[in-house]
Design a protein that fits this description.
It is built from 1 helix and 50 strands. By secondary structure, it is mostly beta strands.
């Protein structure tokens, strides 16, 4: 019986033990109630910030759904509920008031016992504590600039308000800080805040008006760093200075002056009072005729003088206008009463002309170049000795020499001269005896000649130019094939190509090199009686018709301005006129410059101000003529009328804007030269 009982006991114990072990495997649920470990502000805290958030840290993770504005409450001393939002994160519940709490006020916080932890155990006992906010007073404006009631305030002043303590910069804006005149017109400006000095700064977008009352207002929307708003708006007024506007006391050159030097002249404007240098610049002081002259403007406070210095020089015979804009202001910010204008005129162009070489029958096929020292170099044909000659005044007086031509040779026609960056001379010309293109240079110190193109019947109408690498480029006429040809030593050896082979083309060539070392050529289309142009700017040669009017294109001359735009002078044989074409607008535009049996032997040049100068022959009067658009319209001048002069002209312009022209005197069979004064 005893053994049976023991066995039965064991049997009964097995389920119990299994139940115990089963329970261990499942774990034990934590039913401990959560508590609030700490709060902010702490219980009975004093001096709490009015923009503070109220927080409570729990002893364990909580069910965020149980922590709401219904279970986390804040009330005032009178029992009024405080509006706000409640959030929960990282065992911390936060109550953020919708608006700042009141100063020096006691608040009670209650977290109800119904809040639950993550295991759904309720806190049971509500957590209640109280705190008192700071007794701080509202911020005030302690001082202003200008002071309230101030008079004689500079019109370029900034309006400043200094506060009693640190402020919230985001509350200080053009909405809360405004300035208006006595008529209520708001002043446009910007508002900034200096956190170090507690200063709000209103900077007007432009000068205030002199002799006017202005009122500045700072509203109660401005708050300190604790969120306390100003109790009352701040308003103060001031009056700007009533001062006569500055005036121009004197100007040099004097208003209406004539014969003003073209070079070395600056425009000096002296004012009657100290000026604001920041208002004096190339936008407020300009000099121009049909176009604004490029230059620099400076201001001397010692002499109260603004000075305009042109980038290059003034052109001949041009009426210039000096404009001083009303934006120019004195040191108090007072602008000129109105825009001021003055004028002066440079002397009309005139030339000194004379013979350079009077040996028997010299001077046809002239070509002139001006070096960096403004010295002249001229190549030309000696018809008596059938030779190429060269003249220069680099020594201070004219010296001539024969470059090529011995025995039975007949060389030197169609000469074209160019100078490299070292001032060395390069000349292309024609050997009529061998019907070939020739080239001469003094790069090595003495003249050396070569044959750039071995083909026969080539080399008439040559034109030469030197690129920035001192490589040579020559255009010329292929008489054998009636083509335009071009040769260069850019690769180190002479390479010749046909540029245009359509019809009979290539006479009267003129070649120029732009700042990118690209080649541009103007020439005559005999077949169609048109002016043509070719360039390799795209990498390959492209040609086009510039002027398709009947009978145009002979005696072409091409030059390139500082913007790499092309300018061409040429003859209109149908109307016996001088024509001019340019592509400055992006397409070709042509116009007639002079009429009545003119336009032969044209030569064109561009000065540093991008003004055009053309020399040419008048075949009725047998005179040398000159045209320029320096004044904005074409001005014409008979330059030399002593006998039959002016064929084979060539024009160059030096760095001072002086015009140099070489030409042939058919009466005396001399080489002549003229220079502007």
């Amino acid at each position: 019986m005893k053994n049976k009982i023991s066995k039965l006991g064991l049997i009964l114990l097995v389920p119990v033990m299994l139940a115990v072990f089963w329970g261990c495997g499942k774990g034990v649920t934590d039913t401990t109630a959560p508590t609030v470990l700490s709060t902010s502000p702490t219980s009975e805290a004093a001096g709490a910030a009015m923009n503070t958030a109220i927080t409570a840290l729990f002893s364990k993770d909580m069910d965020s759904g149980s922590i709401t504005t219904n279970t986390f409450l804040v009330t005032s001393a009178t029992g009024d509920a405080i509006a706000g939002t409640v959030s929960y994160a990282n065992a911390t519940a936060s109550f953020t008031p919708t608006v700042n709490l009141l100063a020096n006020t006691r608040y009670t916080v209650s977290i109800l016992g119904t809040v639950r932890d993550a295991g759904q155990s309720a806190m049971g006992t509500s957590k209640v504590w109280a705190f008192t906010t700071s007794a701080t007073t509202a911020p005030t404006v302690e001082s202003t600039v200008p002071a309230s009631g101030a008079a004689g305030v500079a019109v370029n002043t900034a309006i400043v308000a200094t506060f009693s303590r640190a402020m919230t910069s985001s509350t200080i804006t053009t909405i809360t800080f405004t300035v208006a005149d006595s008529s209520g017109t708001a002043v446009t400006g910007t508002v900034t805040y200096d956190a170090v000095a507690y200063r709000a700064i209103f900077t007007p977008a432009s000068n205030l008006t002199g002799g006017r009352v202005y009122t500045a207002i700072i509203t109660t929307g401005v708050k300190d760093a604790a969120g306390v708003a100003m109790a009352n708006l701040k308003s103060w007024s001031f009056t700007t200075i009533t001062t006569a506007a500055p005036t121009v006391a004197s100007i040099v050159p004097a208003d209406g002056a004539t014969g003003v030097n073209r070079t070395g002249t600056t425009v000096r404007i002296t004012f009657d009072k100290n000026m604001d240098a920041s208002t004096i610049n190339t936008s407020s002081i300009k000099v121009g005729s049909t176009e604004v002259v490029s230059g620099e403007v400076s201001y001397s406070a010692a002499s109260r003088t603004a000075t305009f210095t042109p980038a290059h020089y003034f052109n001949y015979g041009v009426p210039y206008v000096v404009t001083v804009e009303a934006t120019v202001a004195d040191s108090d910010g007072n602008p000129l009463a109105a825009r001021q204008r003055y004028s002066f005129t440079t002397p009309a162009i005139s030339f000194n002309a004379g013979a350079i070489d009077s040996a028997n029958d010299v001077g046809e096929y002239t070509s002139i170049g001006i070096d960096s020292n403004n010295k002249e170099h001229i190549s030309y044909y000696d018809a008596t000795n059938t030779a190429l000659k060269y003249a220069t005044n680099t020594s201070g007086s004219w010296v001539t020499e024969t470059v090529d031509g011995t025995g039975l040779a007949n060389v030197g026609q169609y000469s074209s001269l160019a100078l490299d960056s070292n001032g060395k001379v390069h000349i292309s010309y024609y050997d009529s005896a061998q019907a070939s293109l020739l080239y001469a240079t003094n790069v090595g110190g003495s003249w050396v000649t070569s044959i750039p193109d071995e083909a026969l019947n080539v080399g008439q109408d040559t034109s030469i130019a030197i690129d920035s690498n001192n490589k040579v480029h020559i255009s010329y006429y292929d008489d054998a094939n009636d083509n335009l040809k071009y040769v260069t030593n850019a690769s180190g050896i002479w390479v010749a190509v046909a540029v245009d082979e359509v019809g009979n083309v290539g006479q009267y060539t003129s070649l120029g090199i732009d700042s990118n070392n690209k080649v541009h050529i103007s020439y005559y289309d005999v077949t169609n009686d048109h002016l043509k142009y070719a360039t390799n700017t795209s990498g390959s040669w492209v040609s086009e018709t510039v002027d398709s009017a009947a009978g145009v294109g002979a005696y072409t001359s091409l030059c390139i301005d500082s913007n790499n735009k092309i300018h061409i002078s040429y003859q209109d044989s149908g109307n016996l006129a001088l024509k001019y074409a340019k592509n400055t607008s992006g397409s070709w535009v042509s116009e007639t410059v002079d009429t009545d049996s003119v336009g032969l032997y044209t030569s064109i040049g561009i000065d540093l101000n991008n003004k055009v100068h053309i020399s040419y022959y008048d075949s009725i009067s047998n005179n040398l003529k000159y045209a320029t658009n320096a004044s904005g319209i074409w001005g014409l001048l008979t330059l030399d009328s002593t006998g039959d002069v002016g064929t084979w002209t060539s024009l160059g312009i030096d760095s001072n804007g002086k015009v140099h022209i070489s030409y042939y005197d058919s009466t005396n069979l001399d080489l002549k030269y003229a220079v502007s004064q």
